[in-house]
Amino acid sequence: MPAPSNRKGKSRATEEExxxxxxxxxxxxxxxxxxxxxxAIAGLVAFVSQGSGEEEGSKYVPLEDKxxxxxxxxxxxCAPGFWMSDKPLVQQALATSxxxxxxxxxxxxxxxxxxxxxxxxxxxxxxxxxxxxxxxRLRMDKYYMLTRKYVNVTFRLLAREQWKxxxxxxxxxxxxxxxxxxxxEDRSVPESLANHLSDIYLEELDKVLALxxxxxxxxxxxxxxxxxxxxxxxxxxxxTVHTRLMSSLFxxxxxxxxxxxxxxxxxxxxxxxxxxxxxxxxxxxxxxxxAKVGGKERSTPEELKGSVLRGxxxxxxxxxxxxxxxRKIYKVWxxxxxxxxxxxxxx
Length: 347
Fold this sequence. Notes:
Its main location: nucleus. This protein has 347 residues and is an all-alpha fold. The chain has helices at residues 7-22, 25-29, 34-50, 65-77, 80-83, 88-104, 113-131, 140-160, 165-176, 191-209, 212-215, 222-225, 227-235, 239-260, 272-275, 283-287, 301-317, 323-335, 340-343; strands at 220-221, 289-290.
């Protein structure tokens, strides 16, 4: 009787070889010939779309974490046009190509499309967190741009999924998990990365909500999208991270919603620090958001502001919040006119 074949071992060996073969695609993505770049993108999309399945049409299985890490390390460093180039247009084109891959992944079974894209997104953030401190000052701007592109395309991915609750939660989990870019448990995660995300989050969301193909979709659940940052605001042990989140994300969105409201908070009721700097108006966020996850109707600015404040209050009330952060959030909640119902729950 023939010995049984070791399919698991064979699968891992094949996967290892496939990943190694895929790494040169990073160089091809930066090729001067557009045809070569297009072939590289198509090859990478096909590779990620297949996952670790042995045969076409088999059940989709994401690459193992270590294999996804190898793939992203290759993409991160082996694209010399991105790593070495000082030409902004080349950098921008490559950053766009790398980020748009997220929307091109297409397993044979359509129901696997989002899980496959999510696995690739998780691989990106793991690579960014892992390699961030090794990026020198002269190259940092191009990786700031790459992270901005990925934030933007993530919102486009969620819009394509019609902002479904479980899809938003899955993306939030990628961002918040231990070792994620907006996590609070792993002190090895660079604070500058979380700060950069808080700087660009609203701007990129506003851009996406301005797209014609997105405005026709159901409204985005604003408070749910802010959940990773809301929890970080309450639980970060670092004062500078809390301050940056307030100044670059929460104060601007609360101000925008107040200004768009028919009953804005009076200037005299706002702390002096918030009136010295003119805040941006995120018009598309205001117009195309809902206060409820899965909500089909667009909410009023008052309702949106209430949902954001409620999320902040609940995060502060959680046992994982630090006491200094809790006091600061409660203070903001009171100044911004939080709901009395939430006030009754404050301990």
